Amino acid sequence: MRAPASTTAPAQGQAQAQAQAPVHVPLSYDDLVRRVLAGELGPGPQGLRVAVAFTTTQAVRHDGRRGGYRNEVLSLRLGRAVGSCAVEPGALPDGAVEDCAGADIARLLEHPLPAVRVAALDAYLMHVRPHTPEHGALPCPLPAGSSLEKSRARARAVVELLDVRPGQTVLVVGVVNSLLEALRARAVSYIPCDLKGGTTEWGEPVATDLHAELGRCDAVLASGMTLGNGSFEPLRTHVLGSGQRLVMFAQTGSAVLPWFLGAGVSAVCAEPYPFFWLDGGPGVIHRYRSAEAAL
């Protein structure tokens, strides 16, 4: 069991919260889903219904950047919690959002669409274990600014979790140019990897097979989108055997990934909805470290 948080020494309590991993670490992603369906982590999901289902679509082209990109995210609201899963733009079939609204979490956890299953799991876990210091999360403020300024601030906060040195190499799974820029600023080498392929802002080729690149890196920085495309569990299993550090940055599954701290995942930068690119005002992300990573 976790030690209770200190009520007399705030700094010490913060350090303890930073080092704590969730209790009852699941054996696998499927085991986590099984526990939710069995009602082992909170209220039975059969009695919890999604009130609102929606998608958020953006197109981005920052000043000073060579190219642009598009994002689409499926989000499900359960009470005060919102769970999300990014999808390829246009990939959700007609009627998917309507099918989720009013459905219970148990049914959505067995939905044929992976994005729906991930968003439902994220919503449920956000509902029972929100991002608070009591649950091991440390808030990290993002300043107000343009989308590019906030992207760079988030990237710096994410890269700090890696604890890598100049000359080491990071495999970046899910290419975000601001993250690559932050690594470059630290003189850390990287291997960009993304299913879309292409090139980075600096003309570097983007690998498409993460498993072919795992032997060439000292650490892995991976997007929560690996939950939606099925690559998270093989990646987690690999680093458990290799001992490589795995840091997750998550808009997708931000409440899911902290459950794997100490079980392959070294740290998580969790960013629940609403995401930094939706608002020019100040925001907050939540950072977790496993007990081992915090030593």
Architecture overview:
By secondary structure, the protein is α/β, with parallel strands linked by helices. The protein contains 10 helices and 10 strands. It has helices spanning 10-19, 29-37, 96-100, 105-108, 114-128, 147-159, 177-185, 210-213, 225-229, 232-242, and strands spanning 52-60, 69-78, 81-87, 138-142, 169-173, 189-193, 219-223, 245-250, 267-270, 283-289. The strands form 2 sheets. Strands 4-10-9-8-7-5-6 form a 7-stranded mixed sheet. The chain has a 3-stranded antiparallel sheet with strand order 1-2-3. A hairpin with an 8-residue loop joins strand 1 and strand 2. Helix 6 (147-159) packs across helix 7 (177-185).
Described by strand count, sense and barrel closure, the largest sheet is: 7 strands, mixed
The Rg value, from CA coordinates, equals: 18 Å
Low-confidence stretches: 1-22
In whole angstroms, the N-to-C terminal distance is: 19 Å
In the sheet with the most strands, the strands line up as 4-10-9-8-7-5-6
Globally, the shape reads: globular
Features:
7-stranded mixed beta sheet; 10 helices; 295 residues; alpha/beta; 3-stranded antiparallel beta sheet
Write the layout of secondary structure elements.
Layout: H1 10-19, H2 29-37, E1 52-60, E2 69-78, E3 81-87, H3 96-100, H4 105-108, H5 114-128, E4 138-142, H6 147-159, E5 169-173, H7 177-185, E6 189-193, H8 210-213, E7 219-223, H9 225-229, H10 232-242, E8 245-250, E9 267-270, E10 283-289
